[in-house]
Every structure is written in structure tokens, then in C-alpha cells.
Amino acid sequence: MADALTLLLKEFVDAFKRYCLLPDTKYRELMIHSSTALRNHLLTMMRLYNKDMVLLCGLKRATDRVNRIFLEDFFPSRKQRGEKFIDELIDTIENLYKLKDNSSSNIEGEEDVVGFDEEVVTLLDQLTATSIKQFQVISIAGMAGLGKTTLARKLFNDPLVEYFFDIRAWTRVSQVYLVKDLLLGILSSSNRDVTDEIYQMSDVQLGEKLYRLLKGRKYLVVLDDIWDSKVWNDIKMYFPDDKTGSRVLFTSRDVDVGSHVQAARPTHVLRFRNEVESWDLFMKKTFGTGICPFSLEAFGRVITRKCEGLPLAIVIVSGLLKNKLSNKWWGQIAEKLSLFMVSNASQYMHSLALSYNDLPPHLKQCFLFFGSFPEDYEVPVTKLIWLWIAQGFINQSGSKTLEDVAEDCLMALINRGLLLTSKKRADGRIKACCIHDLLRDVCLRKAEEEKFSLLSYNYALVPASSTTIHSGLCYPHELGNILLKARLIGRPIHYEYKTVRVLDMEYVPMSVFHSDVLHLSDLRYLAIQAYDGSPPASISNLVNLQTLIISSQKNIVLPKTIWNMVNLRHLYTKSGENLIEQPNFVQVAGNDGSPNLLPSLQTLSQVSPRSCQDVSSRAPNIRKLGFCGSLISSLGDLEFPNVNSLQHLQKLKLLNTIPYPEATRLCNLEMFSKNLRKLTLSNTKVDWEEIWTFSRLPNLEILKLKLHACTGEIWETGDEEFSQLKVLKMHYLDIKCWISSRDNFPRLQRLVVHRCSKLKRIPLDLGSILTLEVIEVRGCSTSAHNSAIEIQKEQENEGNSFLKVHAKPELEIQNEQ
User: Fold this and answer.
1) Beta strands in 40-105 (DSSP E)
2) pTM exceeds cut of 0.85
3) What residues contact residue 725 under an 8 Å CB cut-off, 6+ apart?
4) Is the CB of residue 382 less than 8 Å from the CB of residue 400?
5) 359-449 CATH, one of 3.40.50.150, 1.10.3720.10, 1.10.10.10, 3.40.47.10
6) Residues 539, 541: Cα–Cα separation, whole Å
7) What is the pLDDT of residues 645-691, one digit of tens each?
8) What is the spatial order of strands in the sheet that 167-172 belongs to?
9) CATH number for the domain formed by residue range(s) 117-269
10) Is pLDDT above 70 for 65?
11) What residues are paired with 703 via a beta bridge?
């Protein structure tokens, strides 16, 4: 819907400009036609929202203004008034984009490759040429900030490439690399589960596993950001040439890397954007509509010329401007922006630092913390937010939680172009982010200038077996190495670590929960991986702890003292069915005799329902909750602790561990919180006839039905309406027939169907959902795959070019195994 609105608005503005230049009947009719189309589209959008949302987003105001343009005549003598009027209209719709849910825009995360149209065509032809069966290396080179990764990502995600190759994989290389990490990155990116057993393999074993995976198949592997041809020499023996048309694509700053690795063709050296391309990119990045208001256009063109065709500079400066659409501010940036942007990195570093200098103090801290991470490291957003809070960078703001404030900070940095989105969730929210190498240089320089204490993540080396060494990212890595090398019981930890707030050893395996860390009394964030991850009762000595993450190969038993940790915000256990001691909570009481509460607890994951029968009273503000254990009663009813009174609960996961032989029934809907946004079921075997119950959850936006979540051959949705549902995911289900219509899911944006091998068809009418942006069908029958393609073709015939369909039938998926 957002893309359609942008297109219609552009058509209207273009028609207005033409009519002002040449006010004849033809252009007047074009203007009337385009304004009518825009107005009708806005009216359609209004019907998708309730009355309050219409008023909030300004849709009514925008519609009224378009209607006035439709009724009035704008002659050249009234051009100035018309420009002012259209600027107001653009501003209104810009506010609409800002206020609308993030998940409704750019859910696919498509890249802006303005100016590279010819390169895309040429490279696509080389990647997918059926006449060349030999294995080939293709390289893209150019200075930092020109868009090498953006172009490679565009090619990697192109539907033709997705269809052409059996296996696609992507990994970042960086200046400092480990062969093991490259191999693991390729294996995990190719949709292979990297188990603990795989993680502990030697480089040679991993290489052999990769070779077997690629053998006989047509594959594309992208090695992003190669600094030295030595990288390819280290791993090329693991890439078989079976004359299937396989390709490896490099990106590099060094033009000579292509020749050193014996690339099949000359390196594609990227150029700077010309003035027209720069302006196009600038408008896309600065305005949700992609249209610059008349009043700001002169300043905008001066600014883009001073960026000298460097895409990164354009992105950065657009982040400075997009939230301050005033002539005064734009004039200041146009005057200050450096003219020296391109010949040497040091010459435009000052210009890139403009955005940093404009940040408020709390955002500067958040940005500088990125210098702690290794080059090219993708940081999970949830982890980043918890780390920011632990470091004390986030302050309370009104009624918002610290996590909500931190997310606002993240979006502010992304909107300013200082951070990049690297992964998105199914609902379009950001899952992981990273920082461009040049901006990381800015980050490190500014941290040094401002004496910002910057401990770092680095790789700690530990024996995985008697013959292999395992590397795991650790923060601070010096302390991690100390804890790994020696048991410090009875010995004081060095003074310099006494004030450490974060200890992240999640990827450094140990045998047991390391009690030595309990000496670090100032810890706010603790992440540990251990074969036996059960912490001692003295864990409660960490009175300041906010986040506790434990990964283990055994079920974790959490001591009852955990309920004394009143500052705990996130308790994240990663193993099987995890227990909290003494489920009779009255036995754990405060000094006044009343049961202890965890008022700040927001995340409680993968815990046994037996441990949390009174979770609503114990953790009243919880937002994410996951139950793992026996969830089916002897009578075949889904049962778990009542969470109805958890007013802040947004996400609930139900993972049943004891299979039930027959189809099960849902529990009373009153067991669920009315504010629930996301629900995930796994192994619950709910009868499809029961699923209609979830349509009565008024705020449910994401429904994930995973392995054996439902059972039965037919799902007929009938008259029920999932009124707010935006994402529906169906994985590993035995359904054969799905009967549904667009009226059942009026606001659906993304439909994902994976490994439902018996499903015959995707309901054709779902393609008519006005908000639907993506249908993804993988590992299903050929007929289900064909029905998805049929939906796309039907929508294209009706003029809907915004629906994207990604489909790969079961046979092709099996060939990849």
C-alpha cells in the first residue's frame, strides 16, 4: 500500500508540474485523473484503519486536500500557491509514513541501487548464464562507500538468482578473519543448522562438510569485503567445480584482488554517481514519498552536489536532514558540508562526522559503543538494546520502558544513516544491524578524542577437544580469557574488572556455570554458555544484574533466590525444559513476609509451566514469555499458567515437549492476555477447527504455527476475521487443503508457508488482500508452488506490481539436502 501511495503521489506531482509549464487541456485532464486516483487510494487506505488511526495519521486531512486540487483550477499565475499547497500535502503524507507501523514499509528490506541499472543487468547475466557451465569467480571493486555490498545484496536477493541457484550463501570477510568463521558463516547462511557438533569441528572438517554440501549442486557464494586474495587461497579447495554453473562473487576495495584470484572476467569497478543519480538517491533516502518539497529543492541540490557522487555521504547527510524539513537547517548543512569528499578517506571523514556531531549526548554514547564490536559484525538488536541499558546509556523517558527508549535511539541512529539494517524480522522490524567500515573509523576516532572507555569484543580461544581449538566472541575478551585459563575461587579478581557492567561469554563454552563471575558485583549483563548451566543460589549476590542469559546442553535449574533479584529485566534460558526451584512461591518471601516480586522482569523464556503457576503475580510487567514443557492435559486440552492479567504481555511462545496422540483442543480464550501481539505454537497438535479462537484476540499481529502446532487435513477459516493479523507463518504442518478468503485476513502483509509438503494450494483469493506484500512458499508440493506463482501473475494482470512471491517447490529443496 505504501509503494502504491508513493507512485500515485509522484504521478500527481509530475502532472501538476507539466500543467504549470504548459496549461493545455491534455495536461489538465492528466492532473485531474491523477488527483482522482490519489484521492481514491487514500479513501481505500482509510477503510483499513479505525477512526482513531485515520485521525492520527492525517489521512482525512490529506484526502480533503487532494479533493480541493481536484475541484480547483491551477493556472501558471497561481503556480506559487499550488507549490505551497502541494508541499503541505507532501508533508502530511510524510507524517503518515512516520506514524504508520514500520512493518508496513519495506518489509523486504530492498536495497537502493540507484545508478547501477546497467551493472545489475550485466552481472545478472554473468551469474545466470546457462551457456557457461564452468565454475567462475566474479568480483566487484571500488572505494569504501560506493555501494559494493548494496549491489551484491541486490543481486543475491534477485528472484532470478534465487530461482537459478540450488544453494545461496553469504558471509562477510573483513580485514582480520578466521577461516573457521568463514566456513561456519557459509554453512549457516545456506540455511543449514550449525549444531554444537559442527561448531566444534576443525577447519579441515568444516571445509569437507562444505564441500559435500556443494558437491554436484549449482551454488552461489558471496564473500563480502575481501581485503586480500589470501582469503580465497585459504578456502578455494572447498568449492567443487562440477560444471553446474556455480559462481563465487567477491566484493573488495582492492581492484587487483580479482586478478589475483583468477576471476573469470575483468573486475566490475564501481563509479561515483552522477548528479541525476545522486539526486534520485538523495530523495529516496530523505523522503518516505521520494519527493522533495518545492521549498527545499534548491538546498537539496546544492547538498547532493557537495557529496560528489559518494552514496555513503548521501545516505549520511539525508539522515541529518530527513527529520528537520526547515529552510534554515537545510541552508546550514548546504553551507557547512565539505567539498572534499572523494579523493581520500581522511578528506571526507570530517563530512561523515557531521552526523555524529549533531547527535545529542545519549545517542553519542550509543554510537560510540559500536566500536566495541569487531569489524563487519552483525549485532542482534535485542542484544544491543540490553547492552546499552546495562552500560547506563539509556535514561527513563515518561511512561516508556528503557527498552522502548533504547529502540527509539536505535531507530534514530539508523534514520541518520549511522547504522545499517542487516536483517529484518518477518513483521519488518529490525532483527540485526551493523556499521559501515568508514563510520566505524569515525566511531573509533571519536571514542579516542572524547576519552570514551571502550572495552572490546574479541575472540577467546578455548580447547573444543584434545585436537581442536574453538573460538568464541567474548566481552571483555581479556576477562574472558582470565576466567577460562584459571579458576579464581579464593582469589580476588583484578581491580580493573571490579566495575565491569557487562560480561558476555555466550559463545565461549565451559563445563559448568562459572561461579567466579559472582565476584563481579557491579554486573548488569551476564551471558554464559555451559554444559551444565545451572547457577548456584549465590547468583542473587549480583544485586544489580538486569540481564541473565544462560545457554546449556542440559535442562537448567534456577535457584529460588532468583526471585530476590529485583533489578532483573531479562531472564533468557536456552536449553530444554528449564525449572525454577520451589514453585510454591510463598516459601520465598521478602523481609516483610510478603511474596517477592520482580517488577522489572520483562523477558522470561523457555521455562517449565510447572515453575510459573503464579507468574502473573510474580512478574506483573512481563512482555515476552515462553513456556516449554508438558502443555497438554490428560483430556487433550492445551493448558498453561493463566496469563490473562499480564497487561503488558506482547509475545507468548508455547512449546509442548510431550506429544499427544490425537488432535488437541484450545483452552479458554480467557487464559490469554488481550494485549498479545505475537503468538507461537509448536508441537501442540491443535485441531484446525480450533484455530478460529485466535481471531478473537483483538491485537494479534503475528501468528506462527510451527512443527506439529496444528493437525488435520483441512483448515477452513469460514467467517472468522483475523482483523489485525499482519504475519502468518506455517512450518512443518500436515495440512492438505486450505480454504480461505481475503476477508479472513484483511490486513495481512506477509504469508510464509514452509515445509507443508502435503498442502495442495495457496488460496487464490489471498492475493487480493490490499496490504499483502510478500508470499513465501518453500518446500511444499509443486502444485502449492504453482498456485503461489499463479497468484502473482493474476495480481500483475490486475496492475498490482507490489506483491512479491518467493516460491521453491519441495523437489528443489530436497535436492539441496
Assistant:
1) none
2) no
3) 700, 701, 702, 703, 745, 747, 748
4) no
5) 1.10.10.10
6) 5
7) 899 999 999 999 998 989 999 878 888 999 999 999 999 999 999 99
8) 167-172, 219-226, 247-252, 136-141, 268-269
9) 3.40.50.300
10) no
11) 679, 728
